Amino acid sequence: MDLHIKNIAILGLSSLFVLSCQSTTETSSNLTNEWTVLLDKNLSQWELWMGIPHESVKNLPNGTVTKKNLNVHGDPSNAMGLNNDVKNVFSVIEQNGQPVLHISGEIYGGLTTLKEFENYHLSMQVKWGEKKWAPRLNAKRDSGVLFHCKGDHGAFWKVWKACQEMQIQEKDFGDYIPLAGPSGVIRTATQGGKQTYDPQGQYLSKVTGYSHASHEPDYPNGQWNQVDLYAVGDKAVFSINSEVVMVIEQSKDKNGLPLTSGQLQIQSEGAEIFYRDIKIKALSSLPVL
Q1: Handedness of CA 38, 42, 46, 48 (dihedral sign)
Q2: 3-keto-alpha-glucoside-1,2-lyase/3-keto-2-hydroxy-glucal hydratase domain: from which residue to which, for each copy (predicted)?
Q3: Contact status, residue 145 vs residue 229, Cβ threshold 8 Å
Q4: For site-directed labelling of 206, which of 93, 192, 248, 269 has its Cα 20 to 30 A away?
Q5: Terminal C-alpha separation, the chain
């Protein structure tokens, strides 16, 4: 169901022209104006990449490399690798007759679409589970929806691809983080300090690290949240429970070239989480906000 998003002023939106939804890549041209469901019981439209387990993880195959500090960069050759989910971190269960993605969070990993997408509306529902794992036992529950993913697995922390991230974290739904080289521009109220999206802001800030959403409308743990990503050209809009919390412009890759398409990834990052009703459709222009 399309969202009627609350009125928020967006920089430059009045001058946006309609962009063609015809993809420049073979895979993303398959999208239509009707929803394409991305989740089934066999995860047939996805592949798995598992990172390096924390040293506290038990019952791993002999020879599995483990680490205490997982927040490291470098060669991902020691990661568990492609489709090697021996702990069943990513699985699909059935609730009320529909498939639900269950992510245990025990090992850092990414669920990645086999296809790339460009000019789309991605919709899903998300809620937290109870379990937390080292090294985030005392941290906020964390996950994330990664988009415009390019290149090899393991570019960031030996787990995730180079990408743009829509943060899914306790009290931090809709924050923005570019991973492993990309960047974007957001509107902020002041220069310096805590970088936060402000639709009325006077400054354009280039983001290469963490940037906070304008506000946090996510529901209490255990309740389903509606999460929507609108991506058209080099712009993206994050909507949480029908409220716009982040707008990115001038999305670029590590070489400074426009970043407008790529795979999708869903993170396992130390916390149990559930995703359902994951679907996508073509989008020719950003919605009127």
Answers
A1: positive
A2: 34-281
A3: yes
A4: 269
A5: 16
